[in-house]
Amino acid sequence: MRESIKDKVAVVGAGCSKFGERWDTGIEGLIREATTEACADAGIEIKDIQAAWMGTFLGSQTVEGALPTGMLLSQSLQTQFIPVTRVENACGSGQEAVRGATYAIAAKAYDLVLAIGVEKLKDTGFGGLGAMFPGRWEPVYGAFSTGPGRYAMAATAYFAKYGFSPEDGKRMLAEIDVKSHYYGVRNPRAHLRREITVEDALKAPMIAWPLGLYDCCGVTDGAAAAILVPAEEAKRYRDDYVTIKGLGVGTSPGWFKEREDFDFTSWLATEAAAHQAYDEAGIKDPRKELDMVENHDCFSIAELIASESLFLCEHGKYKKEFTDKRAYYHDGEMPVNVSGGLKSFGHPIGASGTRETYEIYKQIQGKAEEPSRQIKNVRLGLSHNQGGHPGKFICGVVIYGAP
């Protein structure tokens, strides 16, 4: 039985760059932008940081064919003689940085550390990630090689399993798109800041049926950072600090290699990670106890299935419990992705997990930059990231709360 980290680690500062197509700066500039704000928020200087964890998938363009190391952060911030650990767990890389920093503080190895996620996707090629599955393959097998292809299969499987016609299923996803863009417009740091209608989403160009243009996140540059300290020392930095209540990470076998019975309609790794985090935080009924959720909505169907896999409602009941009740808006029963989410705020792979940390931290403090999306009386918030490839799947869940 592992020892709980509940309320042992506090977030005392956070920063986030503007997300988007950041042709105005390089990856070093994004790192400095997020870290400088986080340090100012905590009332510290960069030289006070004792260790750092950097989450990034590709970073930017590789150097001589090699992926980035922790030296990228050291060079960007001009830190001297402190350990920097570069971590990568696909789309959960930013949250891996938070996890590493959290356990370092909990283990009393350090007193003040930095967790940062960053990605300069626009510098890695026109499509952001390059050719992941080149060549000609059997069409269904090949669909697993792309994000839109994989999540499109999840959408059609969900429609079939729970009795949605293609038209009704597409409209349900379109409602999620409308919500995502509604909050993107109201978030000054978001990438996609344009409101849309359901009809806009339904008529948009098709990417991988049934996912159209507005069902998919963009190719985004960005960085987000957090300063972590032992909870008992947090008041030295601020009164409105936020503590980590629970943390879980789960993996699951490949979708079609090891699991012939996998039906795409639930995230097994998410369920495992959620159980771990809820147990550590002492949460019995997440729908009633959580005040907000930032989940991994790289596609509209991902927000839907992640919400069900986090046990915010029964499987197959999302439309009834969320869409019909508008429960996922900031003034609803269960706000989800009121930042705009990965869909509208943007999804720089390694930065998304730390960006969710930033959002929940600010919401608990009552400091959302646009009051029209501030949730009332936030005490507990959940951050969820998932990623992987056809062979394996990884998910992380972190629960943050007021002390």
| Average predicted local confidence, pLDDT | 90
CATH superfamily of one domain: Thiolase/Chalcone synthase
Distance from first to last alpha carbon: 24 Å
Backbone structural class: alpha/beta
Which topology of one domain does CATH recognise? Peroxisomal Thiolase, Chain A, domain 1
Question: In one word, what is the shape?
Answer: globular
Helicity, in percent?
25-40%
Q: Identify low-pLDDT runs.
A: 131-139
The strand line-up of the biggest sheet is 3-2-4-7-1-8-11-10-9
Enumerate how many helices there are, as a single number: 13
**Count of beta strands:** 11
Please give the largest β-sheet: 9 strands, mixed
Q: Which terms would index this structure?
A:
single chain, alpha/beta, Peroxisomal Thiolase, Chain A, domain 1, two-stranded antiparallel sheet, 13 helices, globular
Description:
The protein is of the alpha/beta class and 403 residues long. It has a domain at 9-127 and 219-236: Thiolase/Chalcone synthase (Peroxisomal Thiolase, Chain A, domain 1). 34% of the residues lie in helices and 19% in strands. The chain has 13 helices and 11 strands. A 9-stranded mixed sheet has the order 3-2-4-7-1-8-11-10-9, sandwiched between helices. A two-stranded antiparallel ribbon has the order 5-6. Strand 2, helix 2 and strand 3 (84-87) form a beta-alpha-beta unit. Helix 1 (27-42) packs across helix 2 (71-77) and helix 3 (93-106) crosses helix 13. 54% of the residues are buried. The model is unreliable at 131-139 (pLDDT under 50).
